[in-house]
Amino acid sequence: MHPSPPLDPGLHSTLRAARRILVLTGAGVSAESGVPTFRGSSGVQPALWEGFDPMQLATPEAFARHPEIVARWYDERRALRLTTQPNAGHHALVELERRLTSVGGEFLLATQNVDRLHHAAGSRNVEELHGSIMVWRCTRCEEEREELGPPFETHPPRCQCGAPRRPGVVWFGEALPEAAIEAATRAAEACDLFMSVGTSSIVFPAAGLIEIARANGARTLEINAEETPISRRVDWSVRGKSGEILPQLLASG
Ligand code: BV8
Ligand code: ZN
Fold it and tell me: What is the pTM for the complete model shown?
């Protein structure tokens, strides 16, 4: 299937007619805000991480073996995120949610992103499938706090109870938050339109949601700068930047 030219008429009528939309977003949605993606060329790790494979850092084993290195990597990403703003793609998804809910429709934004830029833009019904680097949790008493201040003094930061605190993200090999993946799965079973935006569609179980949506008869749309493993399986695969395509999609009503 060749990527359809943006704004295919059938896509418009489907978007207008949809009453239950599930949107799955990935790092590509935040790329135009200056947040590096996990994979692919636009990822920019600070020099400190030359030669480190993020996939090797985003694991409980890595934190157990190198708590300082891993905590510093996440704290640097948190500090960088605090300098960024939502982009036009984030804002378009807020508008889509507003339009749909204003006519009694259902909207869920299931994000793999850990940057909370969707919340900053004003999205309301959001499930964070992979947690958030803005939240840090004690490894002993589980006390959690959203951290919006300057970089930590020590890495890893310590809890009052004395134990190290970890980023509130889901690492590889860790289970996703039960409530979040359940809500996303229920939405995939019920939606009439599934939108995959800015994700490489290779991390499970998030990448499995589209198959649940297709099995329930939903139409499927992908917006991505590059081809992904689902590009040839969706009804519309629109090649481009989400910060440009999403506003275009909404502009045409
Ligand atoms: C689980 C948080 C089971 C941390 C992340 C072998 C061993 C162990 C596990 C596995 C294994 N094989 C498979 C697995 C399962 C594993 C998995 O799927 N691995 C993959 C790599 C094969 N999954 C897990 O481990 C999950 N847990 O299975 O647990 C279990 C069950 C019960 C009990 C115990 C255990 C946990 C997965 C979550 C991992 N955490 N992040 C952190 O952020 O550091 S995942 C990581 O990848 C990212 O954070 C992100 O969340 C996720 C997906 O990445 P994307 O968001 O898609 O970003 P990416 O950079 O890849 O792509 C960007 C896309 O945007 C590209 O397509 C690009 O073209 C596009 N783009 C760029 N710019 C733009 C754009 N598009 C539009 N506009 C633009 N401007
Ligand atoms: Zn504690």
Answer: 0.94
